[in-house]
């Protein structure tokens, strides 16, 4: 399963489809496996985590959640108005209004007495509709169009009939007690947590986040925070992709390994059995010390290594890898080692799949189209992804050049600019497609 890097480059869409075909089923299987032993999550704890900021990582329901109580829990008014019996207003007309005495008002949070025939009760939005009443006339349609002071013996006139059920939110019209509230696989965002609380749900079963092993390869790499030796650099890929993976809903284990196949094999063999996906950076091209390709590119289970028609991020790898003592095989997605190449590769090929599996929002980056503020050159045979930002006039400006080492320029970017194959140059004012990064 090899590909000479000097020969045909795989189109971006074809590689994205290949990654999806390998990774998506594995993420779904990992979610299902993780849900079985998972303890139910207290809804109050999920809310507390969200309030503290610790709950920003997405959570997804692993099992259907049913409503503990009906929503609404009682017939209530959709409007500020008068609760009435529709039969009492059957003969109302503009020239012959029906006049009714005003009963006791019904504020929200109070249980009113039944409404007697021939009476109208002031009712507030969300307050219970009194027993006997079957409609609400909004205050603007009454005469006078304002509520009287309680206990004044006032009357109110209605110049039109009203249908039964008007402006009444019926018991269980949103969801009945015991009915399905949220289906398995639903991401738990603000509206979903609100629905759980409203429906009296105390605990739910949430899927465990997929466990991703992130391996940065290179003898020159030093983990973050450690002192540098001669000709060494800090592991920027580990930092950038750890954060990106976590934002996409993954639980991440990071490792840094030198360009030694035995070191990489040792890391893979020592991984626990809940790792669902391996992501590597570096070691995938045609050099003399390409440790990922050298270690995993041979034998009957060899991964594919080749070039994708994209800049940056051309060298890529994809396959399965054996983990742990039992050799369980999980998907491997291998990115190039230059920091911008690795990040762009993640955005193109992996982030949408993880986000869809974990409920991260949005699963796909918001897209836009805008004119260029400056000319742009691109290799005609490649899909070029440049880093940029929108200026005050809504035009696209590049942040740095196309080089895959320009990490600080990537950090300043707010959009990824896409130049499709077949385009060699774009002039100022030409429009380009982009993805928002923030």
UniProtKB/TrEMBL annotation:
<keyword id="KW-0501">Molybdenum cofactor biosynthesis</keyword>
<feature type="domain" description="MoaB/Mog">
    <location>
        <begin position="213"/>
        <end position="356"/>
    </location>
</feature>
<dbReference type="InterPro" id="IPR005111">
    <property type="entry name" value="MoeA_C_domain_IV"/>
</dbReference>
<keyword id="KW-0500">Molybdenum</keyword>
<protein>
    <recommendedName>
        <fullName>Molybdopterin molybdenumtransferase</fullName>
        <ecNumber>2.10.1.1</ecNumber>
    </recommendedName>
</protein>
<dbReference type="InterPro" id="IPR038987">
    <property type="entry name" value="MoeA-like"/>
</dbReference>
<keyword id="KW-0460">Magnesium</keyword>
<dbReference type="InterPro" id="IPR001453">
    <property type="entry name" value="MoaB/Mog_dom"/>
</dbReference>
<dbReference type="Pfam" id="PF03453">
    <property type="entry name" value="MoeA_N"/>
</dbReference>
<keyword id="KW-0808">Transferase</keyword>
<dbReference type="Pfam" id="PF00994">
    <property type="entry name" value="MoCF_biosynth"/>
</dbReference>
<dbReference type="Pfam" id="PF03454">
    <property type="entry name" value="MoeA_C"/>
</dbReference>
<dbReference type="InterPro" id="IPR036135">
    <property type="entry name" value="MoeA_linker/N_sf"/>
</dbReference>
<dbReference type="InterPro" id="IPR005110">
    <property type="entry name" value="MoeA_linker/N"/>
</dbReference>
<comment type="pathway">
    <text>Cofactor biosynthesis; molybdopterin biosynthesis.</text>
</comment>
<keyword id="KW-0479">Metal-binding</keyword>
<dbReference type="InterPro" id="IPR036425">
    <property type="entry name" value="MoaB/Mog-like_dom_sf"/>
</dbReference>
<comment type="function">
    <text>Catalyzes the insertion of molybdate into adenylated molybdopterin with the concomitant release of AMP.</text>
</comment>
<comment type="similarity">
    <text>Belongs to the MoeA family.</text>
</comment>
<dbReference type="InterPro" id="IPR036688">
    <property type="entry name" value="MoeA_C_domain_IV_sf"/>
</dbReference>
